[in-house]
Known about the structure:
Blueprint: H1 7-20, H2 36-43, H3 52-74, H4 76-82, H5 84-98, H6 113-120, H7 126-144, H8 158-163, E1 170-171, E2 176-182, H9 184-192, E3 209-218, E4 224-229, H10 231-241, H11 246-251, H12 257-276, E5 280-281
Antiparallel strand pairs: 1-5, 2-3, 3-4
Helix pairs in contact: 2-3, 3-5, 4-5, 4-7, 6-7
Amino acid sequence: xxxxxxxxxxxxxxxxxxxxxxxxxxxxxxxxxxxxxxxxxxxxxxxxxxxxxxxxxxxxxxxxxxxxxxxxxxxxxxxxxxxxxxxxxxxxxxxxxxxxxxxxxxxxxxxxxxxxxxxxxxxxxxxxxxxxxxxxxxxxxxxxxxxxxxxxxxxxxxxxxxxxxxxxxxxxxxxxxxxxxxxxxxxxxxxxxxxxxxxxxxxxxxxxxxxxxxxxxxxxxxxxxxxxxxxxxxxxxxxxxxxxxxxxxxxxxxxxxxxxxxxxxxxxxxxxxxxxxxxxxxxxxxxxx
Length: 289
């Protein structure tokens, strides 16, 4: 059993954490109003070339520069919509000031940024920024989320396959589903083909308006890809994601006769495709990855 940290060490750690997580300024120096400027001499000895507060500023800068780089990597579409500097000033620094990193794995940095944008970003382009963040984060989830034992239809009898209609099945944790009024994923792909700086002086890709449905997932070679699906497929998969059985998912389509007719015709082919991709598992959300 670990002993409680010495009180003096705990006090130093709290001060250090508070100092380096002060919001990043334009000149990347500690804010003039920061108490750390004066308090630094109580914790840090000056060197031959740096004052006490200048020494803590080295850690302050490195903390912020590292997190900004990671957030830019985690949200490549959002960065391209803003450019690096505007992304840092309008999204990354305000977000990280309220939600500093709390997990050892930096791939998880930004897990609440989509909700933060919805609450705090008030510009006219808020919806496209939110959707871009949502798409970027789904790619992160698909990359590092665990995998549970998939359903293998080749090992099931015809009776067992039929029983799956009434059995609760689950989507793999790395799968995300989307319904958008435009073809945002093709838009995202076009964006990511060019470096961030390219979009500072070139028009954005064309965003085609059409009702579109997508699934983002990781394939068997661990590549993160997206795939456009039909509205019927999206409704069925969304119901399964909510914990419904296939039978209940099909009943949900009764309100749209044309979708139900399509599903009744194509469901065997869809199910074969979904299971061949390993999308389904009998392990629930509380199962270990």
